[in-house]
Amino acid sequence: MRTRAVVAGIDGSARSLAAADWAAREAAARELPLRVVHAGPAVTGDHFLEHAVELLGNRHGGLRITGERAASLTADAELLVVATRGVGGFPGLLLGSTAWEAAARAPFPVALVPSGRDVAAVGDIYGRRFTAGEIVVGVDARAAVDETLAYAFDAADRSGTTLRALHAWRMPLSEAARLPFRVPEDRGAREDHETHLLHEALRPWREKYPHVTVRPDVRALTPARALVAASARAGRLIVGRRGPGLSAVTDAVLHHARSPVVVVPR
């Protein structure tokens, strides 16, 4: 049975504290407790864990926060939140192995919070402030994943935030090769078709969540480019995952997104 709690994984880095702060706000919005888990080698000892729980408690009064040590971030959770990078890695590395493994394997949603250059110093303990922008969900209109849309609509409904449903498409190679010789109406007809597919994929969810403001967005780009571009102004980006492992699209998004990214398993 899934534990009704948001879990924040920390490792002794300022980046992980920034992610834990994001997790605390998410737990408060869901009216769930926050479990702060220090995983991996005891590099910083119990002091860092106690320090993190105290800092988060001071910032989020009224939120139930507990701290614990664990060998790994395998415990079940409503949502696991980790920084894209922790204490390991090297300068320029955008996605750490712990974050990648959690996103690729966890049987529950995982939020990866990018740190940016402004939390490189431990002195800026909470670092980057993410805007309360719209929620963006990546949708494959030809094979929409119910778990991803359910998570996105629930998040938008709970927060009262606009939901942008982003569907990216490209011309088939056979058609793209002839594109210079095609009339503009051909591309317009294809865009209309893609828009229709997206509306159909969203229709049952819009009926289930009538109070959620949904903005369908169809882009003639590769999915990775469209999602990364959308992340620049998003409060969070939600993508799906089919089975263990990450697709090339999701992997690219996790490396380059500017907003927190939630990976929802099927």
UniProtKB/TrEMBL annotation:
Family statement: Belongs to the universal stress protein A family.
Protein name: Universal stress protein
Gene3D superfamilies in UniProt: HUPs
Segments forming domain UspA: 4-41, 75-114, 135-265
Domain of life where this protein originates: Bacteria
